[in-house]
Amino acid sequence: MHATATKLPLAFVSALMLIISHASSLRFHYINSHNFTTKTSASSSSPSSSSSVARRSRNPSLAMVHRDAISGATYPSRRHAVLDRVARDNARAEYLARRLSPTYLPTTDLGSEVVSGLDEGSGEYFVRVGVGSPPTEQYLVVDSGSDVIWVQCKPCSQCYAQADPLFDPASSTTFSAVSCGSAICRMLSSSGCGDSDRCQYEVSYGDGSYTNGVLALETLTVGGTAVEGVAIGCGHRNHGLFVGAAGLLGLGWGPMSLVGQLGGAAGGAFSYCLASRGPGSNADAGSLVLGRSEAVPEGAVWVPLVRNPQAPSFYYVGLSGIGVGDERLPLQAGLFQLTDDGAGGVVMDTGTAVTRLPAEAYAALRDAFAAAVGALPRAPGVSLLDTCYDLSGYTSVRVPTVSFYFDEGATLTLPARNLLVEVDGGIYCLAFAPSPSGMSILGNIQQEGIQITVDSANGFIGFGPGTC
């Protein structure tokens, strides 16, 4: 099948994108549309009919911004920015894969994963959180793949540059260092004692990035709501490419994450919408809501979460297949299955941009996508993005939808804007890549603009029927 096109001046390109066609058996969407098609089988289970999704108002809500909005980084061209992003993304994907290696031995007193830009990317999305009393506003990386919450603190013998002033624990009336003999300190996989019997944490990596300091209880102000007694790392020596952020907000499945610490207060749930960055999108539209609220959409598709004892912080989902257009790709059974030894599986991750698939699945998706778009002019690949097109002279082109088929019958059909990423003026690339390991990662480009609810208490993740 071949796409049709009409030539227009380049100035009009940003206003177009992908149009719907009813001329073939494939389904098509506008790349900048707000269409989001989901469907479930009658047998698909969900918590939506039980009290587990009871809505409560006044849950803490935060605006979520993309890293580029505050990093201050400037690039000669969009291509340079994409190459920088892809380099961070590769590091992130490789780090997640290493986390499942039998030889991976993190040295952390908090028993969770502190991310550094050198080792796994700076994180793509930030939120604004008040730390201490009175609150000091700080940008924190949002990371669904780790548990620890930490900020750089004064006095800082070694710190990287951040957008906000350093947090000064001496200026906070609610800062309380955790003692070595406390229950919280004893929960850590390993711990040390510093001056005044304070519980110390330290995380180091082979690339030289690290953070260390004291573990403390502190008040965090989240969306105007003060949350008291949150265990955070107060880092006095830190090194790495965190690119403007003051620290990290862990939202993983472990007990040290913010969701885990809130417990019943948040109901073990949070919702987020990642701001779309494509043409016609609202870059300020991102949000993060802690707890169950009106942010949990009616009619959401609920997909069971899968627990991996080898990586308890990760949110895995059971994926059974992928479709291009209305055609399910002929992939071997069990390709996305999580094995007994913790390998494979599919992780939802906010810190990885480009979705990674096993080589066989990626090749099948790429070939089916290329066949569907037909004679569109190809462009050279950009780093790991090997399927690119020169659309600089087109008003409209047709692309097929991509669908994820989950276990128990749920199907998520992506909006077209979540399939291609612009890497240069008019050059668009398919935002998927082969995985460096057997593990698959559903990246944030594919999550953008979709209301996603993680209900870890009940073991489900929900995809809203509309965009946000």
Architecture blueprint of SSEs:
Blueprint: E1 17-18, E2 37-39, E3 61-66, H1 68-71, H2 78-98, E4 107-108, H3 117-120, E5 125-131, E6 136-143, E7 150-152, E8 176-177, H4 183-187, E9 192-193, E10 199-204, E11 210-222, E12 225-239, E13 247-250, H5 258-262, E14 269-273, E15 286-290, E16 301-306, E17 315-317, E18 319-324, E19 327-328, E20 346-348, E21 355-357, H6 359-373, E22 378-379, E23 388-390, E24 396-397, E25 402-406, E26 411-413, E27 420-424, E28 427-430, E29 432-434, E30 440-442, H7 444-447, E31 450-455, E32 460-467
Parallel strand pairs: 1-24, 6-13, 7-12, 20-30, 21-29
Antiparallel strand pairs: 2-26, 3-5, 3-15, 4-10, 5-6, 5-11, 7-13, 8-11, 9-10, 10-11, 11-12, 14-15, 14-31, 16-17, 16-32, 17-20, 18-19, 18-25, 22-23, 23-28, 25-26, 27-28, 31-32
Radius of gyration: 22 Å
Structural class: mainly beta
Amount of helix: 10-25%
How far apart the termini lie comes to: 32 Å
Number of helices: 7
Strand order of the largest sheet: 5-6-13-7-12-11
Question: What is the CATH third-level topology name of the largest domain?
Answer: Cathepsin D, subunit A, domain 1
Strand content: 25-35%
What is the global morphology?
globular
**Nearest-integer average pLDDT:** 75
* CATH architecture heading of the largest domain: Beta Barrel
CATH homologous group name of the largest domain:
Acid Proteases
CATH class membership of the largest domain? Mainly Beta
Count the strands? 32
Stretches where pLDDT is under 50 for at least 5 consecutive residues are 1-57, 103-122
Q: How would you characterize the largest beta sheet?
A: 6 strands, mixed, barrel
How many domains is the backbone divided into? 2
